[in-house]
Amino acid sequence: MQNHIIIKQIKESGYLPQIPKDFGEVLNMLLEPCEFNMDECIEKLSKIPELETTLIQVLNHTSRLNRVIVTLKDAVLYLGAKNTRMIAVAYITKLLLPNKSGRAKIFNNKTYWKHCVGTSIASYMLADKTGLCDKDKIFTYGLIHDIGVTVLDICLPDHLDRIYTMKTEQGIHQIVAEKIVLSGITHTEIGMWLCDEWGIPDEIKEIIGCHHYPFVNTNTSNEVRVMYLADFISANHYQRLLGSKKSFNYSDRVMELLNVSKDLIDEIAGKLPGEVERINNAIDFEFL
Ligand SMILES: [Fe+2]
Ligand SMILES: [Fe+2]
User: Which of 154, 195, 211, 244 could cysteine-pair with 205, CB 3.0–4.6 Å?
Assistant: First the structure.
C-alpha cells in the first residue's frame, strides 16, 4: 500500500496532520482497561501535544465538579478508561475535523460531517436496542469510520471533488467513482493505511476498512456489521441532504445475521434527521 500512487501523493501533499506513535498504544491500552498500567498510560498520554489541555478543558468546561481538574492524572482518574478512550478518539476527530482542514471546493464537508454524526447515532441506537456491542464505543467509532474521505479532503481535494461530481452529476456509485479516480483503491484502503501510520488499534482499523464489505471475512465482528447497517441508514439521510431521491437497500443477510428487523431500521431512520441536528448543535466540535 505504501507504494500506491495515491498514498504517495497523500504523503507528498504535506497536509496530513502528524500524530505521535504513542497515541495508538494509548488507545490499545484503553481498549483493555483491566490490563493497562495507569501510570504508563498517563506517561504516554502526556507526550501527545494538546491532548492534556483538551482533556482538562473539556472536563472543566462541561462538568459541574466542585473541584477543578488540574493534572492529566486527575482527568484520567475522574473519567475512567472508557471515557478517556472516547475523548482520545475525539482528539483524532479534532485533527481531522472537516471544516478545519478540508480543502475541497465542490464536496461539502459540513454536510458530509452530518453523515458521520448520523452513522454514529444510528450505530448507537442499533447497539442500544440489540445489545450487540458497546454503544458508547461504537458511537465514537462512527465519527471516524470514513476517515479516508477526510484524508482526501485535506490532502487531495481535487480528487475528492472529481469523485463527488461523478456521484452527484453522473449517478456513479461512490465506491466505483473512487476506484476510477484513485487508481483502484477507495477511502477504506486509505483509512486502513492511516490506521497503520498512526498505530490505531486493529478493532478500529477493521471498522474503517470493512464497513462497506462486512462479508469479506466470515469472522467479521458485530461492530463491523452494526457499522455497515448504520452507514446505510445514515447514507440514505445524507442522500436526502444532498437533494437526491435515490436510496440504498439494506442487506437482508446482515439484518438476518444481526437479528435486526426492518421495523427497527425504519424506526431509527425516522428518528435520525432530528437527532443529527440535535447532536450537531449540542456538541461543540470546534471546542474539542
Ligand atoms: Fe464509507
Ligand atoms: Fe459512511
Answer: 195
